[in-house]
Amino acid sequence: MTYCFSIASLLGLPDARDYAARGVESLSGAFTDKHFGGYVASLDGSPASHRKRSYETSFVVLAASTAATAGVPGAGDLTANAAEVMQSRFWSDEAGALIESWDREFTEPEPYWGANANMHGLESLLALYGHTRDERWRDLALRIAGTFINVRARSENWWLSEHYGPDWTPLPDFNADNPRDEFRPYGMTIGHLFEWSRLLLQLESTWELPPSWLREAASGLYETAVTHGWAVDGEEGFVYTVDWDGLPVIRDRPHWVAAEAISAAATWTNLTGDPRYAKQLHTWTAYAQSRFVDREHGSWHHLLDSDNCPSYTMWSGKPDIYHALQAVILPDLPVAESTAQAVITASRRQL
């Protein structure tokens, strides 16, 4: 939410900067572990809340660097601290990836490598690069992309395993007994392929002569997601996950999957002008407007069942606007390393 209000501040929405400042204050205060360093996951005091995860740390980096770009008080110091925590505690130069999590004291790493946390790590590193123009952050983002996409997804013809053991052995049956897991579901996650595709294009935009494989990989992931995600069970919408034969596992439709499809299609459209992407963008946006947007109570329904009716089996309420926010604004923005920099570039072009 700190990230979202920071983007809203850059867009000129009234009072957004005050909310972003409150978020920066909270992240710098209550959520910072003053004794062992890093950031706690929540304030409920449970053992799980004290575990230090690269997923949450990446979002602190994303929020802080975006707030700093927006000139939010205190965001510069938070950015510096969060970036140091990410690099010193979570970055593995040997693996070219972020360590999934540690115990509170940073003594025992989790014996697991996850694509989801690293995808958001890449996103946060691009935002950090956009704010600081320090190329080391972009270089780390490229290494993450190489580790998960240019090596592993390429070898599987642009299918992406989400879960790996400590020796990088793929774990295709991970959470097969709990396929609805919110963050580590079984099978291939359609929305993540779209998200990776967009992020690879954003990474590509930071070079005059980018690594050639980025465009190829972004296209491969996008096409895999379209082929195996959209209306594959006979109903419009994107299924949550598919198995390794391409068959739907969870046919429910999370809002964030549609949002990431829209964001990816918008990025491809703005980058290439290809009418095929523009048509997909129109189709998926119309679907989101008719099915997800809650015109009575506001925001988006977070989950639809396989019949495209609102469902609450995965989330309670509407806690997340991060994916929907970007789906709404990215179609009107140029391609840049981060949403914040895209907003700034668009504003300059209007002057």
Structure write-up:
- The protein is mainly α and 351 residues long.
- The protein has a domain at 158-164 and 186-351: Glycosyltransferase, CATH 1.50.10.
- 51% of the residues lie in helices and 7% in strands.
- The protein is built from twelve helices and eleven strands.
- The protein has helices at 2-10, 16-28, 54-69, 75-90, 115-132, 135-155, 190-204, 213-229, 255-272, 275-291, 322-329, 339-350; strands spanning 52-53, 91-92, 97-98, 101-102, 113-114, 163-164, 188-189, 241-242, 248-250, 253-254, 303-304.
- The strands form five sheets. The chain has a three-stranded antiparallel sheet. Strands 1-4 form a two-stranded antiparallel sheet. Strands 2-3 form a two-stranded antiparallel ribbon.
- A hairpin with a 4-residue loop joins strand 2 and strand 3.
- The longest helix is centred in the middle third of the chain and has 21 residues, at 135-155.
- The chain is globular and about 55 Å long.
- The model has no long low-confidence stretch (mean pLDDT 97).
Distance between the termini: 29 Å
Query: Radius of gyration over alpha carbons?
Result: 19 Å
Please give the CATH architecture of the domain at 158-164 and 186-351: Alpha/alpha barrel
The proportion of residues in beta strands is: 5-15%
Number of contiguous helices: 12
Number of distinct beta strands: 11
Unreliable runs: none
Approximate helicity band: 40-55%
User: How would you spell out the order of helices and strands?
Assistant: HHEHHEEEEHHEEHHEEEHHEHH
Strand order, largest beta sheet: 7-8-9
Question: What CATH first level of the domain at 158-164 and 186-351 would be assigned?
Answer: Mainly Alpha
Largest sheet: 3 strands, antiparallel
**Which word captures the global form?**
globular
Backbone structural class: mainly alpha
Whole-number mean pLDDT: 97
Give the CATH topology of the domain at 158-164 and 186-351: Glycosyltransferase
- Give the oligomeric state of the chains in this entry, treating copies of one chain as homo and distinct chains as hetero: single chain
